[in-house]
Specification:
Blueprint lengths: L2 E3 L7 E2 L10 E3 L3 H5 L8 E7 L7 E9 L2 E5 L15 E4 L3 H12 L46 E2 L23 E2 L47 H9 L5 H15 L3 H6 L1 H25 L3 H15 L6 H13 L4 H8 L3 H15 L13 H28 L4 H23 L4 H53 E5 L17 E4 L4 E5 L4 E3 L6 E7 L7 E2 L15 E5 L2 E2 L13 E2 L10 E7 L10 H7 L28 E2 L4 E2 L5 E5 L2 E8 L14 E8 L7 E9 L8 E10 L5 E9 L10 E9 L5 E8 L13 E10 L4 H4 L8 E11 L13 H9 L2 E5 L6 E7 L5 E7 L10 E5 L1 E4 L4 E3 L2 E6 L4 E7 L9 E6 L6 E5 L3
Parallel strand pairs: 1-4, 8-9, 10-11
Antiparallel strand pairs: 2-7, 3-6, 4-5, 4-7, 5-6, 11-12, 12-13, 14-19, 15-18, 16-17, 16-19, 20-23, 21-22, 22-25, 23-24, 24-31, 25-30, 26-29, 26-31, 27-28, 27-30, 32-41, 33-34, 33-40, 34-39, 35-41, 36-37, 36-40, 38-39
């Protein structure tokens, strides 16, 4: 399961540049904000959402970060890869997928942790303890069994029984030992008198007194002084066969581990039970870790705890104590196993322990315990497992506080089991005590099960609450974002979502370094005496409110509606998660657990200082002398009033629409159109504008894609070496796109430098409401350049730009949106003064436009134009047009439509027209017709029965 990281300190950010549907990285404005100051460790992810709550919403996994560039996996959890515009909102959050993955892992019935079928097999990879298991026809290789011996019945059956014929050692004949060896050599028994045991079968023998057994072949044995026990030992375990005896004891001990009864009675079974208990504890710890995400996982842990109850041990302490006791005990199988390989004495001790265990068994001799060597290995593995279990338990305790009660109960059970195992290993006679302790442990385990179930329920509730809190936190953040708008260079007119300002909203003015508050109608400076106080309370379990003195002795007090409440760092929702109505207490909180931290942020009242009424302000301030001075604005037709071309719409690049305003575009579709204000809807009160320009961008993908509205200001010397301010009103069709500004200096047809000098002016972020924006730019000097004809300074408004334009637009990026623009002004200085057209009058503005482009027509079907001439041939009449203003230079191009020549009798349709002699004051054009012109006859130019007829001359830059 993939590990995911989360941060309660994360903030919303935006895309720095556009993202295509196939991109594997995204660049955001602030990587620190998105991760809350955290990093992304290898193998983990952060979940982020781009364009949340919109049709373009897409969920991504951030797998690595370098500064503000994130490596991402696209379209997670059923979302689809989308193209996103620069400025798109990016949030960090948890999603349902994270909880679903945990549940899927926990609820898996096969293939988990090496378990092929969890109902019947403990595991297939690591060393396992088999408690309450039935082994059918097993093959047991080099087993090891440890623990104190008890009454046992050991039966060896099957094809391999011959292997035990000479290696079985009965070490304590005082016990009720029945040794049956059904093989080719018959049955071996212990007799009550001197016997020659050749091909004899002894049924239920009793050996008593001081019998002497002779005829033994074992080296080093006396024929007359050995005790019965010694003879048995000699028969079944001489010094020369010590290693073989140890192996036999190991196999016997393996069988003992299969018995649930011996688990409670013998040290070997206790160790095995402890190992199983450790596995169960590990499962319980894993379950506890997952409990916060799934109640089902906790229930599974409870089921494991119930199964573990019968084994009388629950913890690492049981394993460690049992293993230590087995190693220390004379009868311990672990010591037997280690010594058996090198010492016959150790093998004898191991056999004695196995015999003692066998004496109290209800089954036959062939059911004895596992080899001591395997027991030692099992103990070592168990200790390793125990260490892992302890670490897992610690993690579970940290991850799920509600599982603490269950963990405490498990620890108590473990301690009881440890005591039981120690007692069993110290003395065979203490087996009964050990069993009693095991019973107590089982009872404790049942209690632990109940506690685990309770913990699971609490965990489920916590998980549900966490999801609710996450939703509430998102809502709270949005509410906070609407009230604190952040740092701004100028007073905002809408909030960060483009909505109307809320009364009490705040922002920090970076121009004057002061905080301002929105009164409902105006921004006012906040008194410097405003404060924010944090109260911290560490609560007891079940607490639902806080009041009075906090952890630092501060008495809670706040202004109702001006407080924020956090529980363990998670922002709560006023009126939903808590009630704050008294100014001195916070109530209505869901019952908390012990050591929860409640933090209350209280803001003192803000006051607007040094305010004036309009009358007071009028009395104190005077108008800047040149604020409305004609000529300050070097942009001609900045209010889009003049439209000689009768322009409506175009998608053609490098095309003029409104007078002096040209479209520049490449790639996709950019539509430049004329729009008309609804009466009373112009963006500036008192200036009832008529028209505004609209630019719509779609379908751009290329790196050199761009769309811009621009005006070429005559003469590159304009504002050279000066600081200027470019201001304009703008409105977005949707969202918060940006406009990038630029000034371009060109030095004429043969000027130097021959390439243009571009100066980036900065970006502004739009909203869906009309607002005025401004940038201040230092225009480079023209010192050392060569200036020739047609030089210019271009003011450019970029609304979309591919990566090739990053340096010129501040990495604006490709944007798909609608941009409305009006009231463009370029003036000297660093302050945007009130808008004024270049000339101050409509007629003046028209004349300024006619300096670059003159056009007549569109008044009537037979409109007469101010141009006359006489026939030069049967098909041509030269006509001279006397221009109303001197043009910038001799016009270089001619436009016309549906013209005619009139001689007071006939109208001759003009078929073609060309410039003959051009000058800025008057220009002669040759008009050609099909036929019928009389040489030297007087003709006048008129519209040929069409209101669309016109004639135009251009001297644009």
């Amino acid at each position: 399961m993939t590990t995911r990281n989360y941060s309660s300190r994360s903030q919303q950010t935006t895309l720095t540049s556009a993202v295509t549907a196939g991109a594997s990285t995204i660049v955001v404005q602030s990587g620190t904000a998105l991760l809350g100051g955290q990093s992304i460790p290898a193998g983990t992810t952060f979940t982020v959402v781009v364009d949340p709550d919109t049709a373009l919403e897409e969920i991504l996994d951030a797998t690595a970060v370098s500064t503000n560039t994130f490596t991402v996996t696209r379209a997670i959890d059923g979302s689809s890869a989308q193209a996103h515009s620069a400025g798109a909102v990016v949030r960090h959050m948890a999603i349902g997928r994270d909880y679903r993955e945990a549940n899927t892992h926990i609820e898996a019935s096969t293939g988990v942790h090496g378990i092929s079928n969890s109902s019947s097999v403990v595991g297939t990879i690591d060393t396992q303890t088999l408690t309450n298991k039935t082994l059918t026809s097993p093959t047991i290789t080099n087993p090891s069994i440890s623990g104190a011996g008890v009454d046992a019945s050991i039966v060896f059956e099957g094809a391999t029984a011959d292997a035990y014929e000479t290696t079985l050692t009965v070490t304590d004949p005082t016990q009720d030992n029945t040794i049956t060896m059904p093989n080719t050599t018959g049955t071996v028994v212990i007799a009550t008198a001197t016997q020659t045991l050749t091909n004899k079968t002894l049924t239920s023998p009793t050996i008593s007194g001081s019998p002497v057994i002779t005829g033994l072949s074992s080296a080093g044995m006396s024929a007359s002084s050995a005790t019965p026990k010694d003879y048995v030992d000699s028969i079944l375990g001489s010094a020369t066969s010590a290693a073989t005896s140890a192996a036999s004891a190991a196999t016997s001990a393996t069988s003992a581990a299969t018995s649930a009864t011996s688990a409670a009675a013998s040290a070997t079974a206790s160790a095995a039970s402890a190992t199983t208990s450790a596995s169960s504890a590990t499962a319980a710890a894993t379950s506890a870790t997952s409990a916060a995400a799934s109640a089902t996982a906790a229930a599974t842990s409870a089921t494991s705890a119930a199964a573990s109850a019968t084994t009388a041990a629950n913890s690492v302490a049981t394993i460690a104590a049992s293993a230590a006791a087995a190693a220390a005990s004379e009868t311990a199988a672990a010591t037997s196993a280690t010594s058996a390989a090198t010492s016959a004495s150790s093998a004898l001790t191991s056999a004695n322990s196995a015999a003692t265990s066998a004496s109290t068994m209800n089954a036959s001799v062939t059911a004895a315990a596992t080899s001591a060597a395997s027991a030692a290995a099992s103990a070592t593995a168990a200790a390793t497992s125990a260490t892992s279990a302890a670490a897992s338990a610690t993690a579970a305790n940290t991850s799920a506080i509600n599982a603490a009660t269950s963990a405490t109960a498990s620890a108590s059970s473990a301690s009881a089991a440890a005591t039981s195992a120690t007692s069993a290993s110290n003395s065979a006679t203490a087996a009964a005590t050990s069993a009693a302790s095991a019973s107590t442990s089982a009872s404790s385990a049942l209690t632990s099960q109940t506690a685990a179930a309770t913990s699971a329920t609490s965990a489920s509730t916590s998980a549900s609450s966490a999801l609710t809190s996450a939703t509430s936190a998102a809502t709270s953040y949005d509410e906070f974002d609407d009230r604190y708008l952040g740092a701004k260079a100028s007073p905002p007119t809408v909030d960060n979502d483009g909505n109307a300002l809320l009364t009490g909203a705040l922002y920090w003015n970076t121009s004057v370094n002061k905080m301002y508050v929105w009164s409902g109608s105006a921004w006012g400076e906040i008194s410097s005496s405003a404060e924010m106080i944090a109260y911290k309370y560490t609560v007891a379990g079940g607490a639902t409110s806080v009041s009075g003195a906090d952890d630092n002795g501060l008495t809670l007090t706040y202004t109702v509606g001006k407080e924020q409440v956090y529980i363990n760092g998670v922002l709560q929702v006023r009126g939903s998660d808590y009630t704050a109505s008294t100014g001195s207490s916070i109530t209505g909180i869901s019952a908390m657990i012990a050591s929860d931290i409640v933090t209350v942020l209280a803001f003192t009242s803000f006051s607007v200082s040094d305010t004036y009424t309009q009358a007071q302000a009028d009395a104190k301030f005077f108008q800047t002398a040149n604020a409305f001075l004609a000529g300050k604005n070097k942009i001609i037709n900045g209010d889009f009033t003049i439209n000689q071309r009768a322009f409506t719409s175009t998608t053609t690049s490098v095309t003029y629409g409104f007078d002096r305003w040209q479209l520049g575009a490449f790639d996709g579709t950019t539509t430049y159109s004329a729009q008309t204000f609804t009466a009373g809807a112009a963006p500036v009160a008192g200036y009832e504008a008529t028209n505004y320009a609209r630019v719509v961008t779609t379908g751009q993908t290329a790196t050199n894609a761009n769309s811009n509205l621009r005006q070429l200001i005559e003469d590159v010397r304009t504002f050279a070496g000066q600081t200027v301010t470019l201001s304009f009103w703008a409105q977005a069709g949707s969202g918060t796109p940006k406009i990038a500004t630029e000034f371009t200096q060109t030095f004429g047809t043969t000027g130097s430098p021959s390439t243009a000098v571009n100066t980036y002016g900065g970006q502004v972020t739009l909203s869906t409401s009309w607002a005025r924006y401004s940038v201040t730019v230092a225009i480079p000097s023209v010192s050392g350049t060569t200036i020739t004809s047609n030089s210019s300074l271009t003011a450019r408004l970029f609304v979309s730009a591919g990566s090739d334009f990053n340096s010129r637009t501040g990495s604006l990026g490709i944007q798909t949106n609608t941009f409305n623009i009006w009231g463009v002004q370029v003036e000297a200085g660093s302050i945007a003064t009130p808008f004024q057209t270049a000339t101050g009058t409509i007629q003046g503005e028209l004349a300024a436009c006619q300096r670059y482009y003159w056009r007549a027509g569109g008044a009537a079907a037979y409109q007469r134009f101010p141009a006359t001439g006489s026939g030069a041939s049967g098909t041509q009449v030269p006509i001279t047009i006397y221009l109303p203003v001197n043009m910038r230079t001799s016009p270089s191009s001619l436009d016309y439509s549906t013209l005619g020549l009139h001689d007071n009798t006939n109208i001759f349709a003009v078929t073609s027209a060309t410039i003959n002699v051009a000058s800025p004051q008057a220009t002669t054009i040759n008009l050609n017709v099909a036929s019928g012109i009389t040489t030297n006859r007087y003709y006048e130019l008129l519209a040929n029965n069409s209101t669309s007829a016109y004639v135009a001359l251009s001297a644009e830059l």
